[in-house]
Design brief:
9 helices, alpha+beta, Ribosomal Protein S5, domain 2, about 35% helix
Length: about 300
Amino acid sequence: MAVLGNGKAHGACSLLHAAGLGYGASVALDLPIAVRLLDTPSKRDLDDPDGLLDQVLLAWKNAGYGYPNDRTADELHWAVASKIPARQGLKSSAATAVAAVRALADATSTDLEDAEIVALAAQAQIDAGVSLTGSIDDAWACATPGWKLVDTQAETIGEGVLLESPGPSSEDWYVLLVCRGDRAHRPTLEDFVDHRGAFEQALSALQEGRELVALTWNGRAMLNVLGDGLGRKLTNDALINGARAAGVSGSGTALVVIAPKVSKPTCDRLKQYFENQEDGFTVIETSFLNQIVEE
């Protein structure tokens, strides 16, 4: 078995769900994923129930790029090693697509701009049916550090970036991910209509540079979209117990809880609270990935 190409990306969490207003933003998290393109099947089982990786190959071909060594799609195989909890709103699909595109680029010595990688990843997600909007904001967050506010209706991927930021400092904040299992269903666009007000609050907060406020407002809106009563209770309890921000990410089910690093006891108290829940949640402690700002 030969490795033809390697690609990497990382997970992210939502600051503004793109289905709410047509504007979306997600921020990068230290949840790595690595995808390898192989010439024979991997010995490990591949978890790709939506056929996303097949759609990455198709998007690559439709964009005019060739496969390595003139192979056909049937002669290409994948291996994925991921730290991103799947199907919980932490952008595992976007990250997989980004890393797979990078593996294809590596295998064919193709130089791609980040915007081109995001475009291919978004197309693959739409074709696989794993995204309502193409998750362009998610793909940006999985491909690059920090966050970008994206207009999903823009004519090009590059023109769609309205704002960008290095993101909340990883030196200042703990990020706790409360993983509650796979989502039962995905919301439809109609489910978002009655909750524009909360999404508008999140958008205003982002425009003012208050990312953590946006995360909380967006999470509040999404809990209502999803009808997630337990998530609403857990989010409120997190804020009462010292979290500076808390909310569900993406279309659920994972909760993102932010605590200040100046108070380690607060983080420990929050972890203990969630780990002691009867539902048996898994709590992952991670951090933001910050974009380096040039002087």
